[in-house]
Amino acid sequence: MLGADRKQASILRRYCEGLLEAKRLRREIVRQHRDIIEFRNGAALEVGTNDARLIRGRSAIAVLGSECSHWKTDEEAASSDEEVVGAATPSMAMCPDGGLLMLGSSVYRKRGFMYRKYKELHGNDDAEDVCWFAASSTMNPLLPASAVDKALEEDAHKARAEFLNVWREDLSDFIPIDVIDAATDWGITERPPLDGIGYVAWADAAGGTGKDSFSLAIAHRDAKDRTVVLDLVRERKPRFVASAVVAEYAQLGAVIEATERLTGREIERAYVDKGYRGHDAPTAAPRLHLRPKTRGLRPHQTRAHG
After folding, report:
1. Which residues, at least 6 apart from 182, have a Cβ–Cβ distance to it below 8 Å?
2. pLDDT in tens, 83-93
3. Which residues of the chain form CATH 3.40.50.300?
4. Residue 257 pLDDT > 70
5. Bridge partners of 296?
């Protein structure tokens, strides 16, 4: 069983100890340590934190997680929710039925493994996995309605997530996930170039040895609908060889054209993670600040991507 931290893990352990006080289960216990309860059949119940490093290399028939919506969702974190689940799943590989992965939580922000699985599984009758989604009053009919009402009065966003199972809207990123979902054509990863359409491109270079990704985006404006369509997004995470990524991206004509206009140099020399300026950019040109370097842009390039 996995908790978000040591305190929550201790709470989970007390729950387990209470259940194991039943006479039939109590006599099956042969040894009890601080974090492990061992049984006569050789199995053990271990309670710990959601640290991906501690989960790896173990064998399990079931992995249970608590308050998983509140686990770290930063993809760069060493023990993000995705990393923890990815480390736990192989531990059940030897079970004939694949083992049991059960993750429970009150809902939180629209981000991370739990929200992704909710979108994938809830209401999907064809899925093999199950998503149980219910308000607190359904899960616990003895919960006083007055407690819920009071919480709603004090902090509606927090209480709606805690008791009514409503994903929080006040904790969105720069662009709310609902807006992104509504503007996404699902199942399309890249659109091929079409004749007669003018494309704009943006590349954010990196050297491949640090923490920054080497990213590329290509878009065009739909004159009929007066909307901007993002046709392609690519990212190469470190470590990588910058020249190899440049060679890959350079196969896209729009990138070569846009970058050569911006830098006045050959494409092979343009993407160097040392900062660069357009060859004809005036001193007062708008500037894009990227740690730890500062790169200058020409005004028309800034407007094209604004």
Report:
1. none
2. 999 999 999 98
3. 2-139
4. no
5. 287
Q: Could you give the CA distance from residue 200 to residue 152 in angstroms, rounded to a whole number?
A: 47
Please, how many CA atoms are within 13 Å of residue 181, restricted to the half-sphere of its CB?
Answer: 8
pLDDT, greater one: 193 or 287: 193
Residue 175 CB neighbour total at 10 angstroms: 9
The DSSP result for the chain, as a single string, is: -EESSHHHHHHHHHHHHHHTTSHHHHTTEEEE-SSEEEETTS-EEE-EE--HHHHTT---SEEEEESGGGS---TTSTT-HHHHHHHHGGGGTTSTT--EEEEE----BS-SHHHHHHHHHTT-TT-SS------HHHH-TTS-HHHHHHHHHH-HHHHHHHHS---BSTT--SS-HHHHHHT--TT-------TT--EEEEEE---SSSS--EEEEEEEEETTTTEEEEEEEEEEPSS--HHHHHHHHTTSHHHHHHHHHHHSS-HHHH--TT----TT--TT--EEEETTEEEE--HHHHHHT-
Q: What are phi and psi of 205, to 5 degrees?
A: -80, 160
Residue 58: pLDDT over 90: no
Residue among 32, 26, 27 at smallest CA distance from 13 = 32
**Domain 2-139 in this protein, CATH class:** alpha beta
**Six-digit token pair at 36?**
């492990």
Give pTM, 2 decimals. 0.64
pLDDT of residue 242: 82
